[in-house]
Every structure is written in structure tokens, then in C-alpha cells.
């Protein structure tokens, strides 16, 4: 099951379920990147676009490519760079950090969906295309499992 779990995280890394976040700074602080630091003043509006972080070539080898086993074994360390609202996958949700309360539920439902797809069908074909909202995946044929 580690490979299947990695596939779910890789899917969310490539095409985050909520790619845009915004908020107002509650205090002065500094945002740091690989190359620079930015001062943010209390009250300023902030906007975040997750794919800038989840497709960072300084963190992820072949960032635009789907790599199913990216998060297996030593790759699990990269989960700290898979973002949810207000933080990485490796943090727990709390009132203090306002981390997405449903993040673990979303991952579980996605994993169950993949398990159910492979349990019910011996084979399937998909068509993958670009879409204004990200990738568009269409199931074009299904062959029911025979037991």
C-alpha cells in the first residue's frame, strides 16, 4: 500500500485540490524562499499559489512529471513540501494553525477510491487531457473484475 499512498500524494502535489489561498497578516513576519526574504507587515493581504511550492524544481526532481513512487521510502521526507491550506502534509490540524481539518479525510477517500477501482475492475482505459482547471481524466472503458 505505500505505492498507492504515494500515488495519491503525487496526484495532490501535481494538481492540488485547493491551489489558491489568501489571508491577512496578523503580525509582522518574514517569508523566506530559496533566494530571498520578504517582509510582510501586519494587515497586508497575502496570496498563495500552491503549485509554486509543490512544483519547485529545487525540491522536487522532475517537478512537472508524475512520478508514482516519489513518496516511497526516503521520499516520505518530501511530504513536508506537499501543501494544504496553512501548512504541509506532515502537520496535524489544530485550531492554532487552521490547517485543513479535512486533509486526512480527503487522502483516505482518495485511497479508498483507488482501491475500489482496482477491486471492481480487471482493467480500464483512461484519456488524459489538459483543462483550464488542471488535468482532465476520462475513463473510456472498464472491464469488470471476474472472481
UniProtKB/TrEMBL annotation:
Binding site for heme: 100
InterPro entries the UniProt entry points to: Cyt_P450, Cyt_P450_E_grp-IV, Cyt_P450_sf
Example of a GO biological process term: jasmonic acid biosynthetic process
Keywords, comma-separated and alphabetical: Fatty acid biosynthesis, Fatty acid metabolism, Heme, Iron, Lipid biosynthesis, Lipid metabolism, Lyase, Metal-binding, Oxylipin biosynthesis
Pfam families on file: p450 (PF00067)
Keyword Heme: yes
Listed SUPFAM superfamilies: Cytochrome P450
Names of the cofactor(s): heme
Gene Ontology MF term list: heme binding; iron ion binding; lyase activity; monooxygenase activity; oxidoreductase activity, acting on paired donors, with incorporation or reduction of molecular oxygen
GO CC terms: chloroplast envelope; chloroplast thylakoid membrane
Similarity section: Belongs to the cytochrome P450 family.
Identification of the protein by name: Allene oxide synthase
Organism: Linum tenue
